[in-house]
């Protein structure tokens, strides 16, 4: 290990904000308006990937465009009221005060992402969404581009996520990964864990290698 964490990158859903109810509301709109019978639980297991990839994995690629239109319309309406997990905003503020750069790497659409992030009174050095014309997670590209935009070496960055796809993206990027225990997914074997949102601020004292 060397140095301290210079850049903390976060997944959004399940790490910074608790958006499960909003996602379920959007999926219910898809079921109601388009007659889709795939249960929300099946959709929810795939979150973290780009929306088009999820549709393929669920066998819904033929309806993907219509599904995305209905889903995004509902999700955009609910985005401003998606709550942060308790303790997250204060922990982010402590990180920023300590001089750690902050960023977000998410598979959520850009408009929803910015509406959701508006509740945080901290500066985000980089925000990566699927519209940025590079492969989404588990590809390493969103993390590598985020580090480049933040002018930080990958060795001095940490990605905090809650799903296997987050861990895979970090591994492919050669970036340290930490699992958010309060999120939606189980901790991958052998991965370090943040047990509560309050521990986010401890990243300021973390060596990255």
TrEMBL record:
GO cellular component, as recorded: cytosol
GO function terms (MF aspect): phosphoglycolate phosphatase activity
Keyword set, alphabetical order: Hydrolase
GO biological process annotation, one example: DNA repair
PANTHER family for the chain: PHOSPHOGLYCOLATE PHOSPHATASE
Name of the protein described by the UniProt record: HAD-superfamily hydrolase, subfamily IA, variant 3
Species the sequence originates in: Conexibacter woesei (strain DSM 14684 / CCUG 47730 / CIP 108061 / JCM 11494 / NBRC 100937 / ID131577)
């Amino acid at each position: 290990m060397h140095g301290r964490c210079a850049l903390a990158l976060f997944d959004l859903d399940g790490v910074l904000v608790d958006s499960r109810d909003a996602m379920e509301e959007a999926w219910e709109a898809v079921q109601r308006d388009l007659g889709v019978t795939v249960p929300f639980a099946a959709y929810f297991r795939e979150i973290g990937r780009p929306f088009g990839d999820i549709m393929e994995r669920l066998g819904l690629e033929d309806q993907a465009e219509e599904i995305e239109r209905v889903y995004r319309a509902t999700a955009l309406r609910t985005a401003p009221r998606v709550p942060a997990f308790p303790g997250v905003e204060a922990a982010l503020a402590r990180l920023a005060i300590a001089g750690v750069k902050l960023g977000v790497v998410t598979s959520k659409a850009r408009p929803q992402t910015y509406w959701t992030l508006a509740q945080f009174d901290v500066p985000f050095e980089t925000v990566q969404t699927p519209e940025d014309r590079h492969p989404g997670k588990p590809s390493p590209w969103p993390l590598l581009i985020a580090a480049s935009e933040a002018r930080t070496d990958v060795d001095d960055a940490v990605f905090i996520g809650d799903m296997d796809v987050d861990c895979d993206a970090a591994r492919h990027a050669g970036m340290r990964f930490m699992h958010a225990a309060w999120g939606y997914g189980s901790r991958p074997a052998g991965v370090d864990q943040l047990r509560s949102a309050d521990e986010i601020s401890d990243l300021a004292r973390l060596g990255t290698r």
